From TrEMBL:
Tagged with keyword Magnesium: no
Protein name per the record: Beta-ketoacyl synthase N-terminal-like domain-containing protein
InterPro entries in the cross-refs: Beta-ketoacyl_synthase (IPR000794), Ketoacyl_synth_C (IPR014031), Ketoacyl_synth_N (IPR014030), PKS_Beta-ketoAc_synthase_dom (IPR020841), Thiolase-like (IPR016039)
Pfam families: ketoacyl-synt (PF00109), Ketoacyl-synt_C (PF02801)
Superkingdom, taxonomy of origin: Bacteria
Lineage: Bacteria, Bacillati, Actinomycetota, Actinomycetes, Kitasatosporales
Length: 382
C-alpha cells in the first residue's frame, strides 16, 4: 500500500442528513444505535404472508424515495450552512453552483432514472446545483464508493465540495428475492456476530453528506463534523454472493484506508462493521479484521449498527457513516444489538449491553456487497 499517502487537501464533512426507521435526523438515530434499540417491525406496506420473514426496519412515515432523499439533502445542506434556492449557484462561498457534483446511490431497477431525475430537479431548485452528476448502483457498497470518490475529488482539488446522497426503501421485489435466497433472518432479528444468527433484515434509509475541502469550510465558518481521513476499495472476485472466506478483499480495503490516512492499526479506536448477521459474511469479516489488526483486535471495539436500523443496501454505507460520525461526536460507541451469545470462531471485542463511553480519534466504517466488492471509510474526529 505504499502508493497511498495522506491527501494534501483534507476532506471534511460539514453536513449530514438522515431519515431512518429511528426517525428523522441524527438525534433519533444516534439514540437508537447507542442503546441498541432495534427498529424492526412487521411489514405492512405490501403482502408478506407467503414469506419466511415478515419484518423490516421501516420509516415511521412512508415517503416516495425521491422525496425522502431530498429531505436528507435538505438537512445536510442546511447543517453545512449552504445558501438555498437557485441564487445559491452564484452566491459567494455558496454551494458551488453548476460545478457542484451530486453523487447519488440508488438501487438499480426500472424506476432508477425517474428517481434520479426527481432528485436532480430538487437539488437544482433547492441548492443551485446543475443536477445529479453520477448515479451509483453498485449494490451494498454504492454509497461507500460515492463517498470515496467525493473525498478523492476534494483531496485532489478538483472540487471544493461534493454532495453525496443515497436512498433505499423496502419494496416487494427485493424483499422477495432476499427471502427466496434465504438471506433474511428467520427469527426476525438481525444478530451480527452472534451465536444463532440466521441472516439480515432490510431497512429504509435516505442519507446525505456534504464533503468539503477543509480550507473552504474554514473560510466560510462551516461546522466540521468529522474528517474523511482515508478510504479504500478492493474486490474479491470470489463468488456472485458468497464472501471470500478469509476476508481478503475487505482486509485490503481496510489496509488501503489506513495507508491513505497515514495511521497504523493501533490508532483505530472503533469499527462500525458491515455485520449483516449472515453466518458466512460475519465470519469472513472477522477474519479480515484479524488479518489487519492482529493482537490489537482483542481491544478494538466493534459493533454493527445494522442490528438497529437494518440493511439499507445501496444507502447502507452513507447511513452507517452518519452513525460513525455521531459516535465520535458523542463519545458513545453503538451497541451490537440482537446478541444471544459468543461465536467462538470470531473473537471480537463487541460493544454489548449499553453504549461504551469512548472518544477514539479514528474509526472505520466498513461495507461489502454481492460480487465481492468492499469499501472502508476511515473517519477522524475534527
Amino acid at each position: 500500500m505504499t502508493g497511498h499517502a495522506p491527501p494534501a487537501v483534507r476532506p471534511v464533512v460539514t453536513g449530514v442528513g438522515v431519515l431512518s426507521a429511528a426517525g428523522t435526523g441524527l438525534g433519533p438515530l444516534a439514540e437508537a444505535t447507542a442503546h441498541g434499540k432495534a427498529a424492526f417491525t412487521a411489514v405492512d406496506r405490501f403482502d408478506v404472508s407467503a414469506r419466511r420473514t415478515t419484518r423490516a426496519a421501516l420509516l415511521p412515515e412512508p415517503l416516495p424515495l425521491a422525496t425522502a432523499v431530498l429531505a436528507a439533502v435538505d438537512q445536510a445542506c442546511r447543517q453545512a450552512g449552504l445558501p438555498t434556492g437557485p441564487a445559491a449557484a452564484g452566491a459567494p462561498g455558496g454551494s458551488g453552483g453548476p460545478a457542484l457534483p451530486v453523487l447519488l446511490a440508488l438501487h438499480s431497477d426500472l424506476r432508477t432514472r425517474a428517481v434520479a431525475t426527481a432528485v436532480a430537479g430538487g437539488v437544482s431548485a433547492g441548492w443551485g446545483a446543475a443536477g445529479v452528476t453520477r448515479v451509483y448502483t453498485g449494490a451494498c457498497v454504492a454509497a461507500g464508493t460515492a463517498v470515496a470518490d467525493a473525498a478523492a475529488s476534494v483531496a485532489a482539488g478538483r472540487h471544493r465540495r461534493v454532495l453525496v446522497a443515497a436512498g433505499h426503501l423496502v419494496e416487494p421485489g427485493v424483499f422477495a428475492a432476499f427471502d427466496a435466497g434465504r438471506a433474511l433472518a428467520r427469527d426476525g432479528e438481525l444478530r451480527p456476530f452472534s451465536a444463532g444468527r440466521t441472516g439480515t433484515l432490510l431497512g429504509d434509509a435516505a442519507a446525505a453528506v456534504v464533503v468539503e475541502a477543509e480550507p473552504a469550510a474554514a473560510r466560510r465558518g462551516a461546522p466540521v463534523l468529522a474528517r474523511l481521513a482515508g478510504w479504500g476499495r478492493a474486490g474479491d472476485a470470489h463468488h456472485v454472493c458468497r464472501p471470500e472466506p478469509e476476508g481478503d478483499g475487505a482486509a485490503r480495503a481496510i489496509a488501503a484506508a489506513l495507508a491513505r490516512a497515514g495511521v497504523e492499526p493501533p490508532d483505530i479506536g472503533y469499527v462500525n462493521a458491515n455485520g449483516t448477521g449472515s453466518p458466512l459474511a460475519d465470519r469472513a469479516e472477522a477474519s479480515a479484521l484479524r488479518r489487519v489488526f492482529g493482537a490489537h483486535l482483542a481491544r478494538l471495539p466493534v459493533s454493527s449498527s445494522k442490528a438497529v436500523h437494518g440493511h439499507a443496501l445501496e444507502a447502507s454505507a452513507l447511513l452507517e457513516l452518519a452513525v460513525t460520525i455521531t459516535a465520535l461526536r458523542d463519545g458513545r460507541l453503538p451497541v451490537n444489538a440482537g446478541w444471544l451469545g459468543p461465536d467462538p470462531e470470531l473473537g471480537l471485542d463487541l460493544v454489548l449491553d449499553g453504549p461504551r463511553a469512548a472518544r477514539p480519534r479514528h474509526a472505520l466504517t466498513l461495507n461489502s456487497a454481492f460480487g465481492g466488492a468492499n469499501t472502508a471509510l476511515l473517519v477522524a474526529a475534527p
